[in-house]
Specification:
The complex is a heterodimer of chains A (332) and B (161).
Chain A lengths: L7 H9 L5 H13 L1 H11 L5 H15 L15 H10 L4 H13 L4 H8 L14 H4 L5 H23 L20 E6 L13 H14 L3 H4 L2 H4 L13 H11 L3 H4 L16 H13 L8 H10 L2 H4 L6 E6 L4
Antiparallel strand pairs in A: 1-2
Helix pairs in contact in A: 1-2, 10-15, 13-15, 13-16
Chain B lengths: L2 H23 L2 H17 L9 H21 L21 H11 L2 H13 L3 H8 L3 H19 L2 H4 L1
Helix pairs in contact in B: 1-2, 1-3, 2-3, 3-6, 4-7, 5-7, 6-7
Classes of the chains: A mainly alpha (332), B mainly alpha (161).
């Protein structure tokens, strides 16, 4: 066991009584050289004269360290608090006035200037040779998203298109028999007046296009002038469309849409066939139609006209909710 | 806090945090783990962190991660079993800083940490208080005690330098 500040007392008595072996005794002497206040303590408490070996080793330098020089007070700095002022000076906690007093104190007590300097050396400096070599693993790439963005956009676009083309028919309703465009001759539009809640999923993403279209159209002064915008703008009044099959919607939209001439005829609806302002639903359909017309070029006009005959257009005005879909004609 | 701010923190503070932690934990791998954990936590909270306070957040997080590690390890290794540091005056060719580093090991953990944060990073008493969950007065007292102990340890300047 090495002699240290915590265990020296275990060896102190043996040392004073000469019971330590030569190696331990040397160690004890070295320890006391390093800790003069303990040597002093042993001296005082035991009232014994230090061994000649220790005395020789310590020499006059050691005995001088045992002596205490008088500390002359320079108020408020005195022998009880000067160490705090030394530290405060190092820490930058000292006021200008106190710094001047400290300077005066050190001039008067020159023997403390070494201690003052020693205190000023107790500032640690970081070892800049120690570095963290794994910074790269911590960093996050800023460019990754930008690089991947075209790929992400492409995948999203493909999924979006696939959704429209291959969307499974998950709702089983008699009146929603969906036929491919090839068999459109047997299909007609059907409106189901069943009240439905506008669930989130029913808020068709098409509405986003609708809103955009609405703004564009309004900017052209078309619908706004007709005063219709106030009727179709509240979301809660919009008519959801059951999207069991994208063809259904497109047929519907195309069928209900105002013609291009009507839409851009400054909307003097008195000049239209009915002579009335178009229904809200028809305006919405017109907007949808405009946004999707590129996809329905293959649908024949004939079918549209046929479907129109089956509709009761006057009921459209009252329609605030429900399903609009395609009903296939029975074989009768 | 943006990604660029986060990466800036890595560049600016990773070394400093690592040095601070290594001074306490001693084992490079564990110090590295603490640094990585700290940055990971900062990344997760980046949206809540003001970029101007990122350094403080990082050191606070690292400090508490380190305390957790030390507590876990103390269950295994008690302080009395730590290797005894040789007194500096017995060693050859010590400069003041290397002696201070030895002296630092003799300080209680809390004194060691506050004085490291003070000297290495130049934090104010208040900032150190935030990191170590102390008030400024406590920090000041610990730093003063640490300075006094360091001065005692380095002994007579002529013998050291």
């Amino acid at each position: 066991m090495k002699i240290n500040i915590d265990n020296y007392e275990l060896f102190a008595m043996d040392y004073l009584e000469g019971n330590l072996d030569a190696m331990k005794e040397k160690e004890m002497i070295s320890f006391l050289v390093l800790h003069p206040h303990i040597a002093e303590e042993l001296h005082d408490v035991n009232q014994v004269i230090l061994s000649s070996e220790l005395h020789n080793k310590l020499g006059s330098k050691f005995t001088n360290t045992l002596k205490k020089e008088l500390v002359i007070e320079t108020s408020p700095i005195n022998e009880d608090n000067y160490e705090e002022y030394f530290i405060a000076y190092l820490e930058g906690d000292i006021k200008e006035k106190d710094a001047e007093t400290l300077s005066a104190f050190l001039n008067i007590n020159a023997h403390l200037s070494k201690e003052f300097q020693k205190q000023q050396t107790t500032k640690l400096k970081p070892d800049h040779a120690i570095v963290f070599d794994f910074k790269a693993s911590l960093k996050k790439s800023e460019t990754k998203l930008y690089i991947l963005w075209p790929a992400i956009a492409s995948i999203a676009a493909m999924l979006f298109i696939s959704f429209w083309v291959w969307k499974p028919n998950t709702i089983q309703r008699n009146q929603l028999l969906i036929n491919p465009v090839n068999f459109k001759q047997t299909a007609s539009l059907f409106i189901d007046y069943q009240q439905v809640n506008l669930q989130k999923e029913m808020q068709l993403h098409v509405l986003e296009y609708f809103e955009e279209e609405l703004v564009n159209t309004a900017q052209q002064g078309v619908i706004k002038e007709a005063g219709a915008i106030s009727k179709i703008s509240p979301k809660e009044n919009r008519i959801p469309i059951v999207r069991n099959n994208w063809q259904n919607e497109i047929i519907l939209m195309q069928s209900m849409a105002l013609s291009r001439n009507e839409l851009f005829s400054k909307n003097d609806f008195t000049k239209t066939k009915t002579g009335k302002k178009p229904s809200t639903f028809r305006l919405i359909s017109s907007l949808f139609w405009k946004t999707t017309k590129g996809q329905i070029k293959n649908i024949s006009e004939e079918i549209i006209h046929e479907d129109l005959k089956t509709w009761q257009a006057d009921k459209m005005e009252a329609l605030t909710s429900g399903f609009i879909s395609v009903k296939s004609k029975s074989k009768e | 806090m943006k990604i660029s701010d986060y990466n800036h923190c890595v560049d600016q503070f990773a070394d400093a945090v690592y040095r601070f932690i290594l001074k306490n934990i001693k084992v490079e791998d564990r110090a590295r783990d603490v640094v990585q954990d700290s940055f990971m936590k900062m990344w997760e909270k980046r949206k809540e962190i003001d970029a101007t306070k990122a350094k403080s957040y990082l050191f606070t997080t690292a400090y508490h991660c380190m305390i957790d590690v030390i507590r876990r390890e103390k269950k295994v290794l008690y302080k009395n079993e730590l290797p005894l540091v040789e007194n500096p005056t017995k060693n050859q060719a010590h400069d003041v800083q290397s002696i201070l580093n030895l002296a630092l090991e003799q300080l209680p953990d809390i004194q060691k940490n506050v004085v490291l944060l003070r000297d290495y990073e130049g934090y104010s008493y208040e900032e150190i208080g935030e990191i170590c969950k102390l008030n400024a007065s406590q920090v000041k007292v610990y730093i003063y005690r640490a300075r006094a102990s360091l001065k005692k340890f380095i002994g007579n300047p002529e013998m050291v330098i």
